[in-house]
Structures are given as C-alpha cells and as structure tokens.
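Objective 1.3, modelling of assemblies. Example input:
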Amino acid sequence: MDFELNDDQRAILEAVGALLERHAGAERAIALAPKSEYDHALEEALHEAGFLELALGEGTGPLEAVLVVEAVARAGGVVAFGAGALVAPGVAGRSLSGPVAMASAGNGSPIRYGAHARSLLLLDADEASWITLEPGDAEPVRSSFGYPMGRVRSASGDSFGRGSGERMRNWWRVALAAEAVGTMDAALSVTIDYVKQRRQFGRTIGSFQAVQHRLAECAVLLEGSRWLVREAACLGAPSQAAAAAAAHATAAANRVFTETHQVSGAIGYTREHDLHVWSMRLQALRLEFGSIAGHQRALAEARWGEQSR
Amino acid sequence: MEFNWSQEDGEFRRELAEFLDATLPSDWDEISKGGPGSEAQASFSREFAHKLAERGWLTQNWPAAYGGADATPWRHIILSEEMWSRGEPRGPQYMNVNWIGPSIMEYGSEEQKREHLSRISRGDVLWCQGFSEPEAGSDLAALRTLALRDGDVYVVNGTKIWTSYANHADFCFLLVRTDPNSKGRRGVSVLLTEMDLPGIEVREISSVVGERYFHEVFLADVRVPVSCRLGPENEGWSIVSYALQYERVGAPRYARAALTVDQIAAHARERGLLSDPMVLQKLGEARVLCEAARLLTYRVVDQRTRKLPPSADSNLARVAGTIADRAVAELALEVFGEDAMIYGSFADSNFRMAMTAGVAVGATEIQLNLIASRFLGLPRE
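Predicted structure (tokens):
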C-alpha cells in the first residue's frame, strides 16, 4: 500500500500539466463549443508526447494512464482521452486510431465524440468489437451536456472475442470515473475561488457555514472517488472495483453539479463564468453507460449475484 | 502508488483471521450484539485482550521500548479492521491501545508509564473517556468540571456525560479545569483517575440506542492525587488534540459496516430479494460508501506511515465513515421491512448501532467545519 505519487508519476503529471497549460483550459473549451468541434490539436499533442501509450508502456500502466485522464478532464480537454488511453488498450491490448468513441449495442443513444470518432468500441453483451468509422457513418447530435455528441447510424466490426465485453465494461467504468474525478475537481475549485471572493451581507459567502458544509461534503465524495478510481486502475479493473469507482464517482458528480451551481448563484448559469464547462459535463458522465443505479447494481451483482457464488 | 497488500501484510491478516476463528466462542454473535460497551462484551474483552496480548498483538503498534512491536500503521489498521469486522472483541480496550496508551507515552511521567502502559498491554484494564459535559458537547473547550489543588491532591467537582463504558471502567481519562479563572482551551488538565475513588457515581442514561450505552459520571469532592495528572498543569488541551487525532480514524467502523452489508445481502438472497433491482441498487450503494471510507482512511494511514503531521484527510475519512454508516442503517430497514421492528433483531441491532454515527466521537458538522477551513481554505465565520 502506498498512496504517494512516485518520481515517475510526478514527472508524467508535470509534463502533461505543461502540455495542457498550452493546449487546453476553459477558454479553449468555450471556443470549440458553439460548433461542437473536436480538439484535434490537443489530441495530436497528447499523442506525440506519448500520453496515449501509457497504459501499455514500459514501466507505466493503467494507473499512470488514469492519472493523466484525471488531468485532461480537469483541464476541460475536448478529446476522447479516457476511451483512447485506457479503454482501447484494456480491451484491444493496443491503441486504436483515434478519436475513439464508445457505445452499447442496440440502444441508439447519443455518444460522446460520436460524430468525430475514427474508431468505435461497441459493447454487445459478452463481446466488444472494433469498428472503423468513415465520414458519414455518424451524425452530430446537439446536447446541453458539454461534450460534442453524435449518433452512429449503422456499424459492424471485428469482435475481440468472448470475454472482451467484460473487459470493456470494466475499463469503461474506470475511464468514466476518472473523467468524473478530474471534472469534479475543476468544478469544485472554480466554485471555491468564487465563494472566496463573492461578498454579500458584508462578508464573503464562503464564510457561511451553510455554503461551507455543502462544499465540504462534495470534497469528501470527490476524494473518495479519486482513490476508488486509482485503486481500480492499479488492480487492473476487476469488476467490483470498477463498478464501485463508477458508482461513487457518478453519484458524486450529480451531487457536485447540484451544490456548485447552488452556491454560484445566477452567474453560474452563464457562459461568461467557467463553471458550466465542467458542471454540464458531469451530467453527461453521470448518464453514460447505465447511470448511477446501473453501476450500483453492477457492483451488487458482481459481489453477491448468482455468478459470483 | 500501490494498492496491493504486501505478501507479509496479507499473511498477517490471514493469521489473525485464523486466530479469531479459533478463539471467538460459538455464542460470540450473541455476546457482541450489544456493542463494545455492553456488559457481556466488556467482560469478554478482559479474557480476549489477554489472549491477544499473549500473541504479542494487543499493543503491536506501540514502540518496542513500551512492550510493543513497532508494527507499522498498516499492520495496525489490518488488526483494527479484523477486530471491527468481527464486532470488536477487544470491547472498549481498543481505545487503550489507540490513543490512551500513546498519550501516556507522549506526556506521562516514568511512574505513570510504568503503572498504566504495562496494565494496558496485559489486556486487563478498561478505560473510559471523561470529555463531554452537559454544557460542553461539540464545544468541548467550554468544559466546567473543576479540579482545585489542595496540597498533593486535586478536589474534583462536576459532571461528565455520554460516557460509554463508565460502568465497567477501572480508569477515566478525565478532562478538568485546573485554573478556575480560565476559559476555553487554557487552564485545562488531564487526570488519570481511578473510577473507584470516593465521590464518583455512575448513572446509566436510558436511551433508544441500547442498554447501558450512555452514562453520566458525577464527581463530588473526589480527591485525585496530583501524581495522576498527565503532563503539565493547565496545558491539557494539547494532550486532547494529540489524543483526538488518533481517535478520529482509530476505529474503522467501515469494516463493521461492510460486513453488515454482506450479511444483509445474504438475508436478501434467502428472502429471494436479490432479483429486485432496487435492493441490488441499495446494496451496491452501501458497499461503495464503505469502500470510499476505507480508502480515505488508508490515505491517513499512509500519511502516518510517512510520519507526516495530521491533516484534514482524517476529517474527510470520518465524514465518509458516517455517510457509509447511515447508508447501511437505511439498507437494513429497507431489506428487512417490518421485521426490523422487532427489538434485538439483526436489522434493529444494526440500525441502532449505526444511528449514532453522525454524533458519536464528535458531530459531523464539526468535521465539515474543519474540512472547509483546512482542506478547502474557506474563511472562518
């Protein structure tokens, strides 16, 4: 057991931090939003620096990839980094040409980065398959929830074989949870800055206990999510740990959305204030792949269900 | 960063589990139903802790100089988890090991160390914590119990309240005001007080939580020798802070909560409820909250291993534990339904145990205040 970053992990985070400083951030996300554009420049920079290869790298693994997924989400990067850097290696054992999107077969719901993706990872019961998307295979879907969304019209591809479905479910949950952690972290930190400077009744609103307790509970949920995600990644995404991470992080995301908006008041709803860059994404992450209750049931089934006996 | 246990730590846990399987009697479930403070469990603890001491495990976390084994904080949390997940067979003696002993090591005289540390490490002494008073709950520094010097004794007058285990305790870690003109954190001292001194009266407070759970301790002209004072006169608050930092994450209630969730799941299966999506969802939710509390506690253990100063992470861990306990209490009622209304039933016992989570060992609101100021950097009111 060891909860500190080692020297290599610290170096990775410093390097990706510097890269994100140049290529990502709220301003960039806001600029790309009106036309639902994808940040190909950021993806290219992350790819060139080798951050998409961490999960299968020499001396690095899924834990290092998860740390970077958190960081990219915290910077509001408009890239399908969780799918590309964590899920693709976890399912395929190699990286796939990006952007990579993920979908469950047969539900036809909008998916994140669907209209921009070159590769689609499709989950169908026991099997995951890989589909190369051509222009025209997908259409954009307008959404309030902070990511460019799309719907794939029709697709068939190459299966990774029996058992690959379980791998995809688990890594998808870990990736989703890691993105939620980075996104909550940023939403909470924007909000804390705001309540420290916003004054009403002659004092900063952050000095009111009613405000403090809401944000303190968010911090408890966020930090719990952070360690659940890291543990799940380090252990190789076993079903229980992966579902636990996703269940906690998505429930936390829902709570962080509510509380950060509540204490930010009306300015929090505007596009001139940065909160929305992260807060609206929290609801997309919460809805994706079965929502909170789905992850909770998945954990219960993995621990106590017929198959686990 | 590493989330796998070392081989040695894994073996230690297995060894402990085997010892518990062999040592706990067949009617242990019945004994442990009333919680660590119950008559049955407190008297059992004298026998059990003695056996633990024989194996060198009772005070393994203490330095070798005081009869311990210098076990790492990781070893100590493994031991604490195994104990709590079995319903804490050490009874109230977990407090001795976690913070009373360490406080005496840090602040005690040679004579106090000789007397108390050896008794604690033999496993046959029970302590209670004389902190809260009728007018000093969350605001502990408002305590009024007065100890006035009369030659080589203090004459103590006042009332302590909510004192768990007071009915069984041999000693009290008693917080008093030694400077009658002081207020707040100044002028406070700690007296290591024998509970059978004349003038000490213990009364049970009837409660819905359980029998003999809370007590009032009345102190009327109790003459406590000055030699029983821990640390310098009027400087007791720093000892309290030292003790509390150990107390906050000393008892891994999440380990017990997680076991309870497993037991509830087993009952749900017997009743054919495991196919109910709502039951599955609530089971999953409760399990997740226990897991989050576990990892946040581990974060604190990790910092302790590195000998870092106490941080707000211990407050995060405490709040997470409370959230988990609440979810488990809710789950028990949800799964057992009206059967939970039977006193002493599994659901009822667990519900009552969990219902104190947000108040026991300090109100959650205080933990949230500390998180706001220390972790989020928000200004005080």
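The beta strands of chain A are 100-104, 111-112, 119-124, 127-132, 138-141, 149-152, 158-162, 199-200, 203-204.
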